[in-house]
Amino acid sequence: MIKAEPRTILNFLNTYFDVVRDLFEYQQQDGIITKEVYDMICHKHGPQMKSRLREYRVIRAVGGDYEMRDVYFKLMEFLLFEFKPLLPETIEKYKGAIAELFLKIRKSEIHDRDILIERIKNLSGQVREFVDLVERNAFRLLSETRDLKSNIDRVQYREKVNKASFWIEYYILPLNRILDVNHSESVTSKLVEVSEYANRKRLDYSDETVRNEYERLYVQLIQTNQDLLKQSKILTNELLPLLGRIRTESLILTGFIEFLRNPYKVETPPLLKGSRTMVYAKDMYFKVREFFEQFQVEGPVIVEEGVSDFDKWIFDRTLFKEKLAENMPVNDFFTWCFKALKKDFSEIETEKYFAVTGLLFDEDLQIDYSKKGERIEIKTTTSKLSVPKLKVEPTSKI
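RESULT FIELD:
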């Protein structure tokens, strides 16, 4: 229990604010105030400082070291806006506390009136703490994200991308799920359920005092819903797009910015050099004139009607595949195809030759290429083909 007057404590905080801030900064950085740091701070501000800090219960001993009491630490957090982002798991614990109080409220309605009123007030306090933590988290995340975007600390792009991905995965998305009213397991959905219950009870509960408590709880929850919706919009519309843009930045962008600062420092590839060309040839007029002049003199046109004979040859894949299997291994596949057709035809057409070489794509053939890169020349009726020398033999499946 603090024996000093409240005004005296506030006056002390005003007079020795630097002392309390130093203690706060050391504890925030290291998680605790070591004995050496505590002695150094007290020695700097006078011999009476230790007794006053103990009298006003600003600090408490933890083993051989010290720490600020929670009420003073949170006060300094609020005054200095030095909120550390809390993991969503820390905030989500309020769902259990709110659900448990809500269950007890429904069960205690038929029992003690004073206990019911106290539980409603406790539930209101839990909701208030929950909203405060959400606002602090959103504020801190937004502040750090903006600092990261403006690159105040001059961090590398890789580190910026890693930080942005970390915040999205471990802070933004989980916190957004907590605030999602459509998610059945979110804290917000539980608050909606409590709000609907309080709305009914503020109208039909028999005791007027209890009705007034339900009325205050309902009004608080309506405002809470608006506050949480605002924080959810900040997360969805501002934080996620901002972090997303950070993640899409790349070293290529950095290099191009450096190039634009000094574009003549290095020789650039032709892609970046402008040139002027015409969409048509300079002698286009003469070529067009020549094209149309050929139609000015019409020669005689002779049309002969007749039926030309053509070879109705159909490729028998099974037959040629059997012939190939009988001659395996074949050291020169393309020459074998030519000779196989030559037995039946005096002249080999290109279409027929390509039909037989299609056997090469069978899965049960093993193909070996010439290590020397040898090539074979095949002549058909219309073409001269240069093809590699391939060795074909059956695989183990045959």
